[in-house]
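Comment thread on ticket #2218

A.B. wrote:
> Attaching the input chain for the structure job we discussed in standup.
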Amino acid sequence: MEFMFLFLILPFFIYWCLNEKTGLQLSIVYLISIWAVFVCRHLFENMFINMDIRWIVIAVIFCLYLFLRGEIERLLSMGGFRICLIASAIFSFIMILYRPSFEFIILGGIFLGLGTGYCLNKRYVGFESINVLQRTGHVKFFTLFARFILGMAVLTLLVLGSEKIGQLVFESQNLELVGFICNAIIGFWVSAAAPWVFIKLRLAGSK
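C.D. wrote:
> Ran it. Output below, let me know if you need it in another format.
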């Protein structure tokens, strides 16, 4: 499972350094893809689903996303601040309610953090990944590189911290709740907190 989650690094890089809308969409599509893989695994528990089948499921969902991307962007542009927040919460809890095992808790938490963080970013932070404060050449690439390194450094600390907290409360009845909150914080860091830090450190501009 950890191996599959590593592929979220690419959408996060796109969010921070290239295009925040595309980065968010790819992150969400990949989270839904992993969720679909887990659902298939639980539906067909008596069947062996190897890694090749998992990547086929992910590839199919990505193809559907590419085919429907225009319609998805149109629907997102129509939704207001509250609608986007509500939609993030609904999809997050749908992921969890199917089967509240820890792998679904992780997916739901990250999804909620990403979605709500993006809404808050658009409303209050105004981060645009393309905005590098009119820097060009090597300075521009250094700025983007600094964003990614800083973002990933804090993200790594958050992941390690959530694992440590999980070990401390492993025997507790609140393990799932703590895991959900920790992963929501991870998603929120990616979509809102990190962009805010970038702007404050003059590594990015805002609208």
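A.B. wrote:
> Thanks. Noting for the ticket: The CA atoms of residues 136 and 143 lie 10 Å apart.
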